[in-house]
Amino acid sequence: MNTLIIGGGLTGLVAAERLAAAGITAPVLERESEPGGVCRSIEVDGFIFDHTGHLLHVARPETEAYLGELGIWDRLRVWRRSAAIVVGNHATPYPIQIHTHGLAAADRRDCLLGFIRAWATERGREPENFRDWVLERFGAGFAEHFFFPYNRKLYRAEPEELGLDWVGRYVPKPDLEEVVNGALGLHDEAVGYNAVFRYPATGGIRLLPDRVAERVPGLRTGAEVVRLNLAARWLELAGGERLAYETVIATIGLPGLLDMVLDELPAEVAEARKALRWVRVLNIALGVRGPAPVAEHWRYFPDPGVPYYRVGFPSNHGRLAPEGCHTVSVEISFDPGTGNVEAAAAEAEEALAGAGLVDPAAVEVRRLTMVDPAYVVFDHERRQAVSVLRRWLGSHDIRLSGRWAEWKYSAMEDAVLDGMAAARRVVKEAD
């Protein structure tokens, strides 16, 4: 079977590597000059920067076995997450649900009383949106001090616009005893899917995609797909080269994939394409002289007056800077195609200086990266739209695989597992 893979990020690379292990060469077409997608790392003057935060949360034995087979499992250090949420001028450990003890007294009272009232209220029908879900499970205090403002900043959407098919895995839901203990500073158990993570001791996260890429015989970088003819079963690269296919594994962003299609989109498909919502993320990577100003791996900032939603200190969990220096990773959310990037970066760096998180005079390296798409907006139309698009593309033997092609939120382990699953489907169809 003649299979092509669009996108040389982690999912596409793993799919190709697993196919190669099964004796099937599937060319990977990657538009950038190097593989890895957003899992890449870059070195500048001795500082190593990832394309925003990428940490490995390994929960499945097959992932561990695969990383062992690649020879990198033992090169990953294990960390217990150290993260904080900053509300006003007060930092408290993440997740806030069980760590309100660091908040201002009035804010802590709001959260605790709000949770108790929500817990004591008899539930009616199941909530239909994120706003109602938060109020029912956490109460008004948690909603107003963290959940609503933070998710407005990240997703650029109102809480009632968001559905619920993303919250189960990613939002820890404590019981009353845990919340009370958290208000008193008595909760020390790490919770959540990212409570423990792995990260390379040296070199940045690119260790993983680079190692997979070494085992991919059909990798083509600088190969940007610009047109896709579903009826005639060929795709065209930016240089004009056309490649025939029987099936395609697509791992790139779903909107971009659909915009390549030359065939006329059926009305239902065109409407589904229009329904897709997402945000871009500007990552400001800074290489700074001196030690990191805080010990946490990252901090969340829900306050609307703060331009960034998250600030990470990657050199707190990896050797990513010259001796006596550290790295900073700052994230700002944008709607597609909008926003003055340089102005936003300048505002963010001014806010960092005002908060004592960065000394402008100590910045040695500054690098801006825009991830687009970055996060899918899980609104009420997403599930149906994705179902329509997957079904239609599948009828033309275009298989969607990975976070952005499947238009979902997932972690690095999921990218590996998605690539494995895509390869298994091709092998099964080839038999």
Low-confidence stretches: none
State the separation between the terminal residues, measured CA to CA: 10 Å
- Tell me the structural class: alpha/beta
Name the CATH class of the largest domain: Alpha Beta
Level-2 CATH architecture of the largest domain: 3-Layer(bba) Sandwich
User: Number of domains in the coordinates?
Assistant: 3
Output the CATH topology of the largest domain: FAD/NAD(P)-binding domain
Number of strands: 19
What percent of the residues sit in helical stretches (DSSP H or I)?
25-40%
Could you list some keywords that capture this structure?
13 helices, 19 strands, 431 residues, single chain, alpha/beta, FAD/NAD(P)-binding domain, 5-stranded parallel sheet, 33% helix, 3 domains
Can you put this structure into words, describing what you see?
This protein is α/β, with parallel strands linked by helices and about 425 residues long. It folds into three domains: about 5-40 and about 205-270 and about 380-430, FAD/NAD(P)-binding domain (3-Layer(bba) Sandwich), CATH 3.50.50.60; about 100-185, no CATH class; about 280-375. About 35% of the residues lie in helices and about 25% in strands. The longest helix is centred in the C-terminal third of the chain and has 19 residues, at about 410-430. The chain is globular and about 65 Å long. It starts with a strand and ends with a helix. The mean pLDDT is about 95.
